[in-house]
TF-B3 domain-containing protein (Trifolium subterraneum), 157 residues
Amino acid sequence: MAGVGDCVASSSFPASLNIPIPQRSFLPTVVKKLTFYDIQSGTLVLQWHGFGKSDFVFTSSDLLLIDYIGIQYNCKLKFSIDANGELYSKISGGWGDLCRAHRLVEGNRVRFALSKSPHDNAMHMCIYPHIGVQTTLTYPLGDGTELPLYVSQNYFV
């Protein structure tokens, strides 16, 4: 499964799937209810209110947005201040691709989380109420190598 370890052929697992799952520690998190603008413009507007202020040192930078099954989207992150003096960010680029890939609509709730790794410019996200699993299966080729086949499954709670 992506995000929980290296991809391994299913034939190498014993009957019991007791495999170690590395822990990911997340510090700040924020939940955003998506607006029409967030979806249609391809730009996510995210009020920060202390979320991640110290994690991003530049007013504009590249951002790696990682979805709940481990797929990565290259985005642009730009900070600004609104008319009320509140800090907000605009996330563009790969955000539009993520919206299309997950068929996001106005009103979906998305949780964003930053990892403990300082200055890695990565943000993880999870769409509520979705649960996603990505499985890697392999197909043996005639030359002794294996072809990875990726299967993504989305569940709605």
Summary: The chain has a mean pLDDT of 73. Residues 94-101 form the longest helix (8 residues).
